[in-house]
Fold this protein.
Amino acid sequence: DVLMEASNTAAAIVQRYIMALLYYSFDGNGWTERWNFLTPGIHECDWASPLLSDTDLDTNSTDNVLDDVEGAIVMNLNCSDDFSGGMQVITHLEFGARNRMDGTIPTELHHLSQLQSLQFSNNRIRGTIPSQLHNLSRLTRLIVSKTQITGILSPNLFGTIPIETETQANNITSPTSMLSLNNNLSEIIPTSFFPALEELVISENVDLEGPIPSTLSQHLSSTLKDLDLSKNTNLDGTIPFTFGALTKLKLLYLHDTKLTGTVPESFVNLTSLELLELHNNALTGSLEFLCDAAEYNDAGIGFGSVYIQEMTADCSLKSRVELFGWSWQQCTCCTYCY
């Protein structure tokens, strides 16, 4: 085997094993396109081509790039040289565009420790998202969309917190108490959960259920810039007050879910927001606290030097209440009312 001739290290063996495990976990024999998977004499980094370069993969966009190639079956597999280990390591592993992949995500995937981007889209990916993925310390991009992922969005994916602290988080009533809680959390919660994650897209998974775990915002507050939980039509519960800790967040998509309650006033802390989409939910109450905190000029509405390009909510009184009796939000500064 070429791998064994080049390097007999444990890391090289593990990497090849996990790629083979992915193939069998997703019923590789049934794929429409199998590329060079499991081919003897070919390094696993060459089992599929890097069809999209880093410049093509726009990390400033939450668009599903792999699904944009109409009619194409696309996989993106990129590797780089690990000079310290003397081997090629996988950095980008992205499956997309209808390749008849059918199965569950193996928990062993977290052993690909150099992964920077991981994507599963538009295939029959079932089961749950393994909580072990939070050990991927270099991961900046995680996308799971248009799959058959089931169950709840597990709090363990983003880390666990002590029961007494979780109770405190659920009872937060003001930004002051949130800041106090955050100070306590910094001392007792590990910071190793997705420490580099900047983009998280878990969207259009119709069988995904449950509330948004508060651990998401508590552990990703220092890095996360793009968050898309939209079109998970069984995602319910309220928006955690601790979302106000995501101060680096630029893009937030929460539309087309079953979210209820009001938008937390902690959102006034999201001073980096450029886009906020809250429409087609069961949210109620007023967003005027955001309007009051914002600044206005010719560039639009914003906070400080950052201006929101788009802000949507269910704030069209006539369509929401008079015609359908649906929930309604007051928002005089939204760029579009549904």
Observations:
- The CA atoms of residues 84 and 260 lie 50 Å apart.
- Residues 1-8, 52-71, 161-191 have pLDDT under 50 and may be disordered.
